[in-house]
Amino acid sequence: MYQWRKFEFFEEKFAGKCSIPEDVAGDATCCSSGRGKIIVGCDNGAVSLLDRGLKFNYGFQAHSSSVLFLQQLKQRNYLVTVGEDEQISPQLSSMCLKVFDLDKMQPEGSSTSSPECVQILRIFTNQYPEAKITSFLVLEEAPPILLIAIGLDNGYIYGIKGDIARERIKRFKLEVYSHTDKSQSSIMGMGFRVDGQATQLFAVTPTSVSLFSLQTEPYSRNTLDQIGCNSNAVAMTDRSQELMIGRDEAVYFYEVDGRGPCWAFEGEKKFLGWFRGYLLCVIADHRSNKNTFNIYDLKNRLIAHSFVTKEVSQMLCEWGNIILIMADKSALCIGEKDMESKLDMLFKKNLYTVAINLVQSQQADAAATAEVLRKYGDHLYSKQEYDEAMAQYINTIGHLEPSYVIQKFLDAQRIYNLTNYLEKLHEKGLASKDHTTLLLNCYTKLKDVEKLNVFIKREDGVGEHKFDVETAIRVCRAANYHEHAMYVAKKAGRHEWYLKILLEDLGSYEEALQYISSLEPSQAGVTVKEYGKILIEHKPDDTIEILMRLCTEDAELAKRDSSIGLYTSMLPSPVDFLNIFIHHPEALMNFLEQYTNKVKDSPAQVEIHNTLLELYLSNDLDFPLISQANIDEPTNSRGGRPSAPAVMSRPKTNGKLSVYQKDLNKEKYHQERLQKGLRLLKTAWPSDLEHPLYDVDLAIILCEMNEFKEGLLYLYEKMKLFKEVTACYMQAHDHEGLIACCKRLGDSGKGGDPSLWADVLKYFGELGEDCSKEVKEVLTYIERDDILPPIIVLQTLSNNPCLTLSVIKDYIARKLEQESKLIEDDRKAIDKYQEETLSMRKEIQDLRTNARIFQLSKCTACTFTLDLPAVHFMCMHSFHLRCLGDNEKECPECAPEYRSVLEMKRSLEQNSKDQDQFFNKVKNSKDGFSVIAEYFGKGIISKTRIRGNGTLGAGNSSSSSGF
């Protein structure tokens, strides 16, 4: 033990001016501390209470004679004392136990006061014979329950348990060791140990160490050792609740199962104590007759403080200090220095190991420990002991900035130590991206593939990495460790990095496609969008196969499901992948054709059809294989272009022939695409749909841009833009097609537009070339449907100087003959109407000027002889008055005809108000003028009336409608 280092971790407080006040009379026989006070019992029966700095507070007379033992309770402000009082009778012992309530003071005389004594107990009774008390101990179980143990010189322990203040107590006796020699059986010390609900009591005699279990009766006893101690050097540790015994050769520790460790400190142990993990020991050296007070740090094996002192009477711990009361009433107050002072002391002596052990044993915060480790590491670094320095720096991870350590070892070029530090940094999950980069660079510079494998491929958990994944991949790629980079990317689920390495670094296109196929559909779609351009360039067929699987997977099963619409909408659309075909339109066309053949009701079919139309109708697609392949070669099984190997295996031909053949093949392929486009235009616009499954405006623009006449004609005809259809034929000078188109679209009986023939005639009239045959055919249909008047025909054809009169001679002759017949018929009708009008006028004049003679002798209704009263009508019908009934104003015979005329007139007047009907008749009639003439003939438009101011006005509301 003499090899233990000595330090001055404690210092004397109050500048050495600490002593027992003079107010304390008598010699101190016992002391206790607690609740911020020190209580001193004297041989005169007085008890004194001292405040901080050992200043006298107050005192009182507890016993009439000496105070042997006392203890200040912690949970309640009670003081328990054992002392001698006056003997009342020979049968009663003078030894008493008293309990004082220090919170309740009672007056004693006029000038002094003392605490209230709440209970007085006689310790010895008939059942508990009197003996010398050698030790005393109080345990506070649960207030107000106390457990008091009184050790005697005869080997017994008297126990008192319960509410002492109310005298609700239970007494018991424990026999420790019975020996004929009384000096060998005295109870030298005791200690309570509480373990949960169990209470145990250590008892020490000069010849034994025993342990009593006080949980259940009868109380059991277990002998822990056959050797005890002969002094009061018995104490308990605070946390581990171990018993300490001081003998001349050593200090022994006891646990519930027996003797524990011992520490060989020579000399007689007068006092033992425990303070904040330190062992306090007052040792008497008989050779020098001096007492030494030592404070031992058992964990770190050092003496924290040591000095020679006078004879110690009492040793206490209060106010965070150690208090020694000497026999001459002087006192020492010793306090522990702060951690910073202790560490500075150690640093000055370069005792860094001791400093580290010190902060760890005293449970200092992690930051303080790390600071000590850093200083120790700096010390070792300055001595160029890099390995040992790094060991200390590693322990500071989490508290010391890593750049502090990294910079040091970068300057020292100690890559091995730096690698070790960075590894530990990653193990604790405190590494940044820069740290990962540096560590991987260390591995690659050292070419330590084994460590690189361990770092990259260690199994810490599925998908868990203690480094930045992206940084690791980037560094491994830069160092050409592609396998490691791919492993990290795959394990971390960074599919984009995995494919980037395969495609950009290794060129493993097939493996990349296989990897994409193994991914989840959603993730596969994302990766194809990102890397599809490269894949299409090198593996177009395989890439298209993956796209088909992504866009149509389980399509057949989905068709049998009632929720097909919902399922289809969840699948990715081919439109999402159009950008990857930006330089490969032929592959895009192949992909969309396969998709449309398999999926008929895609939500994106309009966009797909638009894209296909643009591909089909384009004139100058820059296909990669056109410049190398012959279009006449058999296509592959997908119906696409020949494969690259087949193209490369073709024999070389003459240059001129090759160029001619290429142009021929290109034109042929162009025509095939145009036919596909026309077929798509027709199939994507079924007759049952009002609108097509593509953008009509876009389709028209594409057809016009690429001069695709067939598609343009189909679209115009489908949209019923017949004039635009004929305009296309006129622009192309396709006379045969123009006439055929008018035959098909100009028939009004089939919903056609007869005015097309007028447009065609005008076209031929302005053509400026001989088109007699076509004009004759056109005139045939114009004449058949009576589309144009002859005068208009003549005026139109007169503009073409290449046409002769013979072209229209027959047409004019027929028209003149037809018109002559019509004129003759009209003249006959005029003569007839004039005769009828003249006859009617004569009849009206006759009715106005001449009398009517009624000669009928019979009634027109009943055919009986006409008698009075009778009624004669101007229509020459006569009736009995009785036969007419109530209707006496009109002839029953002529009334129906008259009513029909009135009804017709009323209907005409009503129709005259319907302007839409009038204009529709004018528009749909071959001769609109005849419709207007008919309305005038019926008197609907021409009818006028005399207004109030004498001017002519409309006879009814319809006459003002603007006809």
TrEMBL record:
Compartment(s) of residence: Endomembrane system; Vacuole membrane; Prevacuolar compartment membrane
InterPro entries recorded: CHCR_PEP5_VPS11 (IPR057308), Clathrin_H-chain/VPS_repeat (IPR000547), TPR-like_helical_dom_sf (IPR011990), VPS11 (IPR016528), VPS11_C (IPR024763), WD40/YVTN_repeat-like_dom_sf (IPR015943), WD40_repeat_dom_sf (IPR036322), Znf_RING (IPR001841)
Region (Disordered), start-end ranges: 632-651
GO CC annotation: CORVET complex; HOPS complex; plant-type vacuole membrane
Main function: Involved in regulating membrane fusion at the tonoplast and the prevacuolar compartment.
PANTHER family: VACUOLAR PROTEIN SORTING-ASSOCIATED PROTEIN, VACUOLAR PROTEIN SORTING-ASSOCIATED PROTEIN 11 HOMOLOG
Protein name as catalogued: Vacuolar protein sorting-associated protein 11 homolog
Lineage: Eukaryota, Viridiplantae, Streptophyta, Embryophyta, Tracheophyta
